[in-house]
Amino acid sequence: MKNRFAVCLPVAVTICLALTACGAGGSGQPQPSSSLPTVTSEATTSSVPQGTLPASKLNWAGFFASDHANPNVGYQLLASGVLSETPDNVDAVITTWLKAHPHAYVVPVIDYGAAPDGSRVLWAWIVDGDQYLNHELVRQGICVADTMRRPDDSLQLAVTQGQYDAFVQPLAGLEASAKQHRLGIWK
Fold first, then answer.
1. pLDDT score of 46 more than 80
2. How close are the terminal C-alpha atoms of the chain, in Å?
3. Which residues are CB-neighbours of 144 under 8 A, at least 6 positions away?
4. Is the overall model pTM greater than 0.70, yes or no?
5. What is the largest CA-CA distance in the chain?
C-alpha cells in the first residue's frame, strides 16, 4: 500500500520545522561547513570525522530529522521536488541503512535560511565512507533522482562543487536500476 501525498519544498520545510520544534522524529569525503551546525568532540567517535554530527544522534521521521542538542535546526534528506507517491517502507529503509552504517554522519549541503522564528532547515547528506543514505533512497525507488539535486543553482552549497558533482553523478543510474527492478515508486 502506498501513501499518496505531495510534498513540495515549502511544505517539507514546514514539516521539518514542526518536527524540529517538537523533537520528533577522509580525504575527498564531504566535510561540514564550519558555519553550519556541528557537534562538539565529546559527541563524536573515532570513526566519525571530528566535529561532525553522527546521524545516529538525530531523531528521524521519514525524510526529516531533528537533533535535541540543537532544536532550532531541522535536516531533510530531499533537496527539492514533489513526491506524489511514497512507499510505506521509507522509515524501514532509513532505519536499516543507519543500523548498517553506525558511523554515518551528517554533511550539511544547503542551508535554506532562517524562518521567522529563527529556526533553520538544512538539506543534508548522510555519509559513511563512500556510502550515502540519500543514494540508497533513490536506489530502492523511495524517491526520484531529481529530489537529490540542488533545486536552484543560486543556492549556495556548503560542500565543494566537486563534491556535489560526485554526489549527483550516480543518481541517474540508481534511478534507472530502481525502475528496471520495479522497486518502490516504480512498481
1. no
2. 11
3. 81, 138, 175, 185
4. yes
5. 45
